[in-house]
């Protein structure tokens, strides 16, 4: 099931996305409004609105976004890094999260903004120290993400808080797909229609199960929390006016335009 978060007439709601998932079929999609929130057992209201009549919001409002760096060997190599012995984790703040169609604001402290297409894992229940065999029980679903990075600040500052945590640096969307095997999905990034990244989640050094186990050893994960699983090779520059799109097989396409901050 595809579950979206949206606003209409000043109200915010969740809805089940119904209709074809083929490219170009978005105009035929409708949302069946969910009663309550989707992390527990929920009912569909039967009240339906066309997707074209609503504004899509970030599909979740995470308490935290835990991101993983250098989880694709070719991406680590393209930036001159080795694959780390243990997963490299960092946080992106909630203020960095935006939805599909929202603008990425080019930060004033950077001259080298990069796209990073990623599979995002959405947690569905509070959990800690999750055993591998129970990872599927705590995952709500998956969505597309763009770990937008101020690459020059990342190199200069060593710590990644500003380089990867600035406002609008974490686009998520367009919705969450709850029925999906993340083991071998095509992941693509285009800029102004030109392909920049193309990889498969099967190339990840550490799997979704590995990452959930590793992260939950250290911290409690809450419903709506997001784990970013790393990006394949091909990262590159974004400029003001560019339109960047992340497409993941079985989920959909997350699209954002880059604008000047201010």
UniProtKB/TrEMBL annotation:
Q: Which residues form the signal peptide?
A: none
Domain named Fumarylacetoacetase-like C-terminal: residues: 64-258
Database matches in SUPFAM superfamilies: FAH
Q: What is its EC number?
A: 4.3.2.3
InterPro entries assigned to the protein according to its UniProt record, in alphabetical order: Fumarylacetoacetase-like_C (IPR011234), Fumarylacetoacetase_C_sf (IPR036663), Rv2993c-like_N (IPR018833)
An annotated GO BP: carboxylic acid metabolic process
Superkingdom per UniProt: Bacteria
Any matching Pfam family: Rv2993c-like_N
Would I find Metal-binding among this entry's keywords? yes
**Domain (Rv2993c-like N-terminal): residue spans on this chain:** 1-59
State a single Gene Ontology molecular function: isomerase activity
**Gene3D superfamilies assigned:** FAH (2.30.30.370), Fumarylacetoacetase-like, C-terminal domain (3.90.850.10)
Annotated keywords: Isomerase, Lyase, Metal-binding
Query: PANTHER family, alphabetically?
Result: ACYLPYRUVASE (PTHR11820), ACYLPYRUVASE FAHD1, MITOCHONDRIAL (PTHR11820:SF7)
Could you identify this protein by its name? 2-hydroxyhepta-2,4-diene-1,7-dioate isomerase
């Amino acid at each position: 099931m595809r579950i979206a978060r949206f606003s209409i007439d000043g109200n915010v709601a969740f809805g089940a996305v119904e209709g074809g998932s083929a490219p170009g079929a978005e105009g035929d999609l409708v949302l069946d409004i969910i009663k309550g929130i989707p992390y527990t057992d929920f009912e569909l209201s039967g009240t339906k609105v066309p997707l074209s009549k609503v504004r899509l919001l970030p599909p979740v409002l995470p308490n935290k976004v835990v991101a993983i760096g250098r989880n694709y060997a070719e991406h680590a190599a393209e930036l001159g890094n080795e694959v780390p012995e243990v997963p490299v984790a960092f946080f992106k703040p909630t203020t960095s999260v935006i939805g599909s169609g929202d603008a990425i604001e080019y930060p004033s402290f950077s001259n080298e903004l990069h796209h990073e297409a990623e599979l995002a894992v959405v947690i569905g229940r509070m959990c800690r120290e999750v055993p591998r065999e129970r990872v599927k029980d705590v995952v709500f679903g998956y969505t597309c993400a763009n770990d937008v990075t101020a690459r020059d600040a990342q190199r200069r500052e060593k710590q990644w808080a500003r380089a990867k945590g600035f406002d609008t640096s974490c686009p998520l969307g367009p919705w969450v797909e709850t029925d999906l095997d993340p083991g071998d999905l095509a992941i693509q990034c285009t800029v102004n229609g030109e392909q920049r990244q193309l990889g498969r989640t099967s190339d990840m050094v550490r799997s979704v199960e590995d990452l959930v186990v590793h992260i939950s050893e250290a911290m409690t994960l809450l419903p709506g929390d997001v784990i970013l699983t790393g990006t394949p090779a091909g990262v590159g520059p974004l400029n003001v006016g560019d339109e960047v799109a992340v497409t993941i097989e079985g989920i959909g396409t997350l699209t954002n335009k880059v604008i000047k901050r201010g």
